[in-house]
Design goal:
The complex is a heterodimer.
Chain A lengths: L1 E4 H15 L3 E6 L14 H5 L4 E4 L3 H13 L3 E8 H4 L3 H8 L2 H4 L9 E6 L14 H4 L6 E3 L4 H6 L1 H6 L4 E6 L6 E4 L12 E4 L4 E5 L3 H14 L4 E5 L2 E3 L3 H11 L2 E8 L4 H13 L8 E5 L8 H7 L3 H12 L1
Parallel strand pairs in A: 2-3, 2-4, 4-5, 5-7, 6-7, 10-11, 10-13, 13-14
Antiparallel strand pairs in A: 1-8, 6-12, 9-11
Chain B lengths: L5 H25 L14 H9 L6 E5 L3 H7 L3 H8 L23 E5 L5 H15 L5 E6 L6 H12 L4 E7 L2 E2 L2 E2 H4 L5 H6 L5 E5 L3 H16 L5 E6 L17 H8 L3 H11 L5 H23 L21 H15 L2
Parallel strand pairs in B: 1-2, 1-3, 3-4, 4-8, 7-8
Antiparallel strand pairs in B: 5-6
Helix pairs in contact in B: 1-2, 1-3, 1-11, 1-12, 2-3, 2-9, 4-12, 5-6
Classes of the chains: A alpha/beta, B alpha/beta.
The site of magnesium ion has 6 residues of chain B, from strand 5.
């Protein structure tokens, strides 16, 4: 076991994939010479050369589309978009091409493409750099949506994502890059389909993913201090959702709080809540609760940004409210 | 050069204001009074100051996230800009936007856009509104060399030319988009040449010479105002500092930075005016003291500013039911009036 950061784990995953399969290449803005805007790919250009670590101009739509084309052409591209906010410039390519080509071609073509991007708020970067739009992508059939929240998942999810014959989007919360965790030298390949219980408990299930896993774990600590045993479930895959694991947890805790940095209306948290209601309604002792971002673009000022985002305190309060 | 040098001295003073303001921002960033992304235009002051000489109060401005200089040169108060950077209600955007999102309706300053090339289509629309209403106004749209690679740049250039819209496109070409040099991002690095393919006049100017920038921008803006359709101006400049406070700046040769610093627009103008006998030691001292006093005043103002109450968090998402009712009524009335034949 070695201690490593989320950033290093992701870099190790990229290095491993580039070594394993010569069809794999990394492409995006400032991924090479600069080393990635969050320094994830630092050193990879030197190690693998400019044919495999490709710097692009600021042309999100074109280079994401080029990733789709390269995948059709037999390559295994990893495309990095600096943040989910800029992925909107490539939304057409992702939704109208990557997600639909298999279907529209009657199964003749498939797009084995991985797109990585940073998501989330918390660094006072204001509205155009702070949004969590992964829930939108999770709406779209044809895409697999992953949210590695731990160092182990940052290390382990990329290779199976590359082995998927269809497009996979990987969302990395910006506050996680410096997070540390333990990693085994021969890290096992993780499976992409299941949610994970990160902390077992009996009284309430806190459902979180990506950046909100830490929020939920902190809330669980606080709740333990009051004698409430919270189970923390990490969704890991936002599409498809592992409904079975979600339902199983709620069936033994009888209460659920969904924690999501996306906005509440029409959100991933709404989908999770609906699945619980559809499949475990009679096991619930209280209505499902949600702690989400305030319905406002993320503001710059620190106190407002903090107030806009899910906090451990808000999760604890939601649990108190359902117990009352 | 004006005969008594009054105008040139004002250009010098404006550039110094921006320089000293941004240097203060660095200090305040180190002290954590400013957070988030902070993009400085130190070295590029001649662009902002030169371009804004060519615009009148009726003209509109669409800018980027590297816009402190644009805002100051536009006449937006230094107090309000700094208060914004410190997240205070007294700021240009009540502290909601921060460094990258300065806005001022009175100055027709439409932001502060942090999506590269995101402002260009909006500038087209502002110009379209003027065009449809028969108003002789210019919309100045500022952006960096990096924006030229985006689809929104190309779509906007075409619309402006096709519809003959009054847009002044200003590309501040500082040779880098974050860590990517122009040569590594463009097959055709002559941006004026590229722009001319859209069938609009496109000129390059020395972005390190405030006089050259002003002269070029004036000729272009006057032509746009006179109904000449869109113009494109490329300002060849350089940022002396890193892309943002997060940027380790490992992609440029230090010698290259030093070479450009020799062309610093501020000392260049000081030397020129001194040699022409238009700038005495005493005048230069007085200009510097005046600027220092303004920066100190803005610092104190921002520091003593207030934080917006958290209860107001979800305001300004859509029109407030009560607070903005007045504004809506005004807009509604204007609409009604405009329908009167
Ligand atoms: C659509 C989009 N992609 C990427 C980014 C990240 N980013 C911010 S500034 C920047 C460089 C832009 O360079 P340029 O247009 O030359 O302006 P400069 O910073 O040099 O003033 C990049 C890549 C962004 N803000 N928006
Ligand atoms: Mg640039």
């Amino acid at each position: 076991m070695t201690t490593t950061t989320y950033r290093q784990a992701m870099r190790e995953a990229l290095r491993d994939a580039l070594r394993r399969d010569e069809r794999v290449f990394l492409m995006g803005e400032d991924v090479g010479r600069y080393g990635g805007c969050y320094a994830v790919s630092l050193g990879l250009l030197e190690e693998f050369g400019p044919q495999r670590i490709i710097d692009t101009p600021l042309s999100e739509s074109a280079f994401v589309g080029a990733g789709i084309g390269a995948a059709l052409g037999g390559m295994r591209p990893i495309v990095e978009i600096m943040t989910v906010n800029f992925s909107l410039l490539a939304l057409d390519q992702i939704v109208n091409n990557a997600a639909t080509l298999r279907h529209m071609s009657g199964g003749q073509f498939n797009v084995p493409l991985v797109i990585r991007m940073t998501t989330g708020a918390g660094r006072q970067l204001a509205a155009q750099h702070s949004h969590s739009l992964e829930g939108w992508y999770a709406h779209v059939p044809g895409l697999r949506i992953l949210a590695p929240a731990t160092v182990q998942d940052a290390r382990g999810m990329l290779w199976p994502a590359l082995c998927d014959p269809d497009p996979v989007l990987v969302f990395e919360h910006g506050l996680l890059y410096n997070a540390e965790g333990e990693l085994a030298a021969d890290a096992p390949v993780v499976d992409l389909t299941t949610a994970a219980v990160r902390r077992p408990g009996t009284d309430v299930t806190l459902l979180a993913y990506g950046g909100t896993l830490r929020t939920a774990l902190a809330a669980a600590d606080d709740l333990a201090g009051e004698g409430t045993s919270a189970e923390v479930l990490d969704l890991r895959s936002l599409r498809p959702l592992d409904t079975a694991t979600i339902v199983a947890s709620v069936q033994h805790t009888h209460r659920a709080v969904v924690v999501d940095e996306g906005w509440r209306s029409g959100s991933l948290s709404a989908e999770v809540s609906a699945r619980i209601t559809e499949e475990a309604f009679y096991d619930l002792d209280a209505p499902v609760a949600r702690v989400c971002a305030a319905e406002v673009p993320v503001p710059y000022a620190k106190h407002l940004e903090e107030a806009a985002l899910p906090s451990p305190g808000a999760v604890v309060e939601a649990v108190h409210h359902m117990a009352a | 050069m004006s005969k008594d040098g009054t105008h040139d001295l004002e250009l010098l003073r404006q550039m110094l204001r921006i320089r000293r303001f941004e240097e203060r921002c660095v200090e305040l960033y180190s002290a954590s009074a400013i957070r988030g992304f902070l993009h400085l235009a130190i070295g590029e002051e001649a662009c902002a100051v030169g371009v804004f000489q060519a615009l009148g109060p009726e003209d509109a401005v669409v800018s980027t996230y590297r816009e402190h200089g644009h805002a100051l040169a536009r006449g937006i108060s230094m107090r309000a800009v700094l208060a914004e950077l410190e997240g205070k209600v007294e700021g240009t955007s009540r502290g909601r936007g921060g460094s990258m999102h300065l806005f001022d309706a009175g100055a027709r300053f439409y932001g502060g856009n942090a999506i590269v090339a995101g402002g260009l289509p909006v500038a087209i629309g502002l110009a379209l509104a003027d065009h449809l209403q028969g108003r002789r106004r210019v919309t100045a749209c500022l952006f960096g060399d990096g924006a030229v690679a985006e689809g929104e740049f190309h779509e906007s250039m075409n619309l402006a030319a096709l519809w003959h819209l009054p847009v002044l496109f200003v590309c501040e070409n500082n040779l880098y988009a974050m860590g990517t040099s122009l040569a590594r991002a463009q097959a055709e690095t002559d941006l004026a040449l590229k722009a001319s393919a859209y069938r609009m006049p496109a000129w390059a100017a020395d972005g390190m010479s405030v006089r050259d920038v002003e002269d070029t921008a004036r000729r272009a803006a006057d032509a746009v105002r006179a109904g000449g359709g869109p113009y494109f101006v490329e300002l060849r400049t350089y940022r002396f500092r890193a892309h943002s406070m997060y940027d380790p700046d490992r992609y440029r040769d230090k010698a290259e930075i030093e070479r450009w610093k020799e062309r610093d627009p501020i000392p260049a103008l000081v030397t020129e005016l001194t040699e022409a006998g238009l700038l005495s030691e005493a005048t230069w001292r007085a200009i510097q003291d005046g600027v220092q006093a303004e920066v100190d005043d803005a610092t104190a103002y921002a520091e003593s500013g207030t934080l917006e109450p958290v209860e107001d968090l979800t305001r300004f998402c859509v029109a407030d039911a009560d607070a903005d009712a007045g504004a809506e009524a005004v807009a509604g009335q204007a609409l009604a009036e405009s329908r009167v034949p």
